[in-house]
Amino acid sequence: MSMLAELVEVVIGVDTHSQTHTAAVLDARTGGVLARATVTADPDGYAELVALAEQHSGLRAWAMAGAGGYGAGLARHLAAGSEMVVELDRPKRPARRAGAKSDPIDAERAARDALARTRLAQPKTGAERAALQMRLTARRAAVEATSTSQRQLLAMVITAPEQVRARFRGQNTRAMITTAARLRPGASTDDIEVITALTVLHDLADRIRFLEAEALGHEKAIRTIVRSWRSDLLELTGVGPIVAATVLTAWSHPGRCRNDAAFAMLAGTAPIPASSGKTVRYRLNRSGDRQLNRALHTVTLSRLHQGLCPSSDQRAQAVTQSGLLLLDPGERRAFAGEGGDGRWPLRGVYAEGVAEVGEGDALEQCDPRRVLVGGLLRVVAGDTPEGVLRVGEGEQGLGAGAEGVGVC
Asked: Which band of pLDDT confidence, cut at 50, 70 and 90, is reported for residue 221?
């Protein structure tokens, strides 16, 4: 794969912040800094950066970290102008010169980092993806706040005066919420402690119901978007609107996903080489997009409960045939589903993942990194040549010294 330096003549590194963006223009051939500028993070500032880039002839590319955060506006502006944008992860601290850090230094470092890469990440794009991302974020916050409020309600009931606690004794959480919502503090003639307890419990119940309604509203909106965009995902066993939305936001668009192995690394389901000397082994991947990992885990749990995943013996055979015997014994048992507390089903469905990739891929011929995600990725990408993901090193979840692992 060609390096960025072989494809363009000018690279503009951008260090993004909430109020300003700092850019450094580098010559791709010599690595020399041609220009620097700091602009405001608004359309006028974006136009200034484009004008600065146009002062230097030749093909150009933009390299920035945080294209989905502080740099989202600039990324959209550049995409509208058909500019080439490369998304970077946060620079590694050891690469900083004696701990030096400033906006111009970070912008220059971003450009040099992009020049040295052979695998370039594309920023996430698309109106549907952005809408799903916002809905998922808002729903997740509502669900977490609901759980927090429920715990507060339970704790408040336990510490409430006996005449208040007696109303809730023997009830489960849902019944407690209903009881608390029916409380009428204004009708009580007890002391201030009892009245306050009744008031707070009533308010907590109202908050819980409001948050539950908000989360349900987001889920309905997510289902509507997924049905209008990729309704075929909802037909897969174990895939609901939340799982489908999570996968779609990670995949983003055709052209971002290179192959099954890259998607597996993005999801944090690809084993990581951990060899040293004569010892050749792998370890479990605890990096990557954890929300995507959780979504795949949910799919696997659903299929396990429906009896659609391989048995422990079948998974153990898959481990033997796929070369996962190089894993540590404990991790190998986790992959095979032997013993443990059932928290590792995703690692133990390698055989099913291979089966979804296609009958033509014999188990013993597949790379052990091709785990469950193969079939799901092909459905999302439409099994077309355009469905090839460009996953950057940060999204791959790679550790130091593990560049290129799982991105074949």
From this structure: very high
